[in-house]
Amino acid sequence: MSKLRIALSKGSLLEPTIAGLNKAGFDVAPLRRESRQLRLVAEGGIEYLIARPADVPTYVERGAVDIGFVGSDILMENKYEVVELKDLAYGSCKFILAGQKKSTSLASDPDAIMTIATKYPNITAEYLARCGRQAEIIKLYGSLELAPLAGLADQIIDLMSTGRTLSENGLEVIDEIADVSCLLIANYVSYKLKSSRIDELAQKVGLS
Amino acid sequence: MKPQTSLTATPLGLRDLLPAEVRKRRQLEASIRGAFEKRGFGEVICPTFEFYDLLSVEASTAVKQDMVRFIGSDGRILALRPEMTTAIARLAVKKLDLDQGPYPFYYIANVFREEFSREGLVREIRQAGVELIGRGGVEEDTDIIALFIETLKATGLKRIQVGLGQMGFLESVLQSLPVSEAERSELRAAMAARSLVKYKKALSKIKLNNGLAEKLLRLPTARGDKEALENAQALVVNPTVEAALKRLIDVYSGLCERGLDGCVSIDFGIWHDFNYYTGLVFEAYAPGLGRPLGGGGRYDNLLAELGRPAPAAGFAIDLKNLQALIEKPDRNENGVSNE
């Protein structure tokens, strides 16, 4: 039997993904061990790689692994040639446009050129194009809520799960852009050549 | 460290080859050339650049964006060819009596793209391929696919698998659905993006009866020739769809008769990026390479688009990927590092 190589996203998706694999009957014992190893071999011809979420689709696209678990936000921001097999529904959050309370919404004043801070310049550009709006996009790497408070940007486009950070910093949602959740993706050629193993895994994981 | 000055730098994505590497490359090309010539294909050489208007006539948005462009002294936009098929179709319309065919052509040539993929930036790609212009029956489809397999095997590759799809079938099924053009485009986009998630979502938004949605959903995921064909059969609702499916079955049987059934499988999940494909499409996979080794298909509308209708089909193989695979057949198959 050929080996199945699986890339897991480090961070908030890791726990639910391990739980899902466990529930589906895969050996996750090596993932449970306290260890700093990033590559782990498990029973049943399985090999896990633990990668930075934004790198998971790259490993999958190039065939360094067969399948990967990754947030759809990453697949929206950049284009990858991978097969999107299944929406696993966990890790759900939203892309939102947010601004300070009482700030003008993008839609209400069509001629104002806003400044938008974001970690996702491509998603932001697409959103603006869809709304037919012009804006200045400022790329930041984290703590987006700071930008409107410091006067760096009028609004932000970011991921929101509970909305607590937003409200604690006096910001509110102006528009919901897209839903995000964890996806199961496969390398295109692996999906063709290891079809039975991949189909079986796709069928088993994410069943509630 | 060798001296590096701004004068000896090369543009990103381009590289030099020294004799040892060129020798290997030429050896590979010789075996491919041999396979093509054995079946009576003759080599053609086309200009390295052409008018952008020509090269973009049937190109997808991605290919258009990726073309290396510049402006001629007359102000017209020129581009380095991003693939060979359009240039050869142009040559055929310009130079040949298309009532007298077929014309079996091949090329081994460089194509150019601003491809910012995770492969890194590779701007010059060596390709080998064929175009069979002027006749487009079952026989020609079968010949082309058989030659594709034969050529790959001639290079020494052992384990290859060829997926056989049918754009004509997918498109005529889409046309037969009682949906709006916008909904149809959404389904196309989902297939082109290889997203079963988006495909499923797009299907769930439209109202379809009689388990039709179920069959459509299974279309790109059905595994095994029998299952894929049975499912496809259930989607036959008019003569166009029926003819498209029959073509696929006929070619598949032809390949089986030639003893090639072991490495060919029917797969309605193959959706090719180039807009010009109208009929059968195919691509080759090998363990150890994360993307197809090469592929092709039938493009019966391209020549008409250039002013002279004539059927045509062909394929292209990426030589750099092929060579990497021949040299290291088990690169990825056994994991990144072997245990």
Describe this structure in words.
- The complex is a heterodimer of chains A (208) and B (339).
- Chain A has helices at residues 14-23, 29-32, 56-61, 72-77, 121-131, 146-149, 164-168, 188-193, 195-204; strands spanning 4-9, 39-42, 46-51, 67-71, 83-87, 93-100, 114-118, 135-139, 155-160, 171-180, 182-186.
- Chain A has 208 residues and is of the alpha/beta class.
- In chain A, the strands form two sheets. A six-stranded mixed sheet of chain A has the order 2-3-1-4-11-5. In chain A, strands 8-7-9-6-10 form a five-stranded mixed sheet.
- In chain A, strand 7, helix 5 and strand 8 form a beta-alpha-beta unit.
- Chain A is elongated and about 60 Å long.
- Chain A starts with a strand and ends with a helix.
- The model of chain A has no long low-confidence stretch (mean pLDDT 91).
- Chain B is α+β, with helices and mostly antiparallel strands and 339 residues long.
- Chain B has two domains: 12-159 and 286-339, Bira Bifunctional Protein, Domain 2 (BirA Bifunctional Protein, domain 2, 2-Layer Sandwich), CATH 3.30.930.10; 161-279, Bira Bifunctional Protein, Domain 2 (BirA Bifunctional Protein, domain 2, 2-Layer Sandwich), CATH 3.30.930.
- Chain B has helices at residues 19-38, 52-55, 61-65, 85-95, 138-154, 167-176, 181-192, 196-205, 212-218, 225-233, 239-257, 302-305, 319-327, and strands at 42-43, 49-51, 69-71, 77-80, 103-117, 120-133, 161-166, 264-266, 280-285, 294-298, 312-318.
- In chain B, strand 5 and strand 6 (120-133) form a beta hairpin.
- The chains are: A alpha/beta (208), B alpha+beta (339).
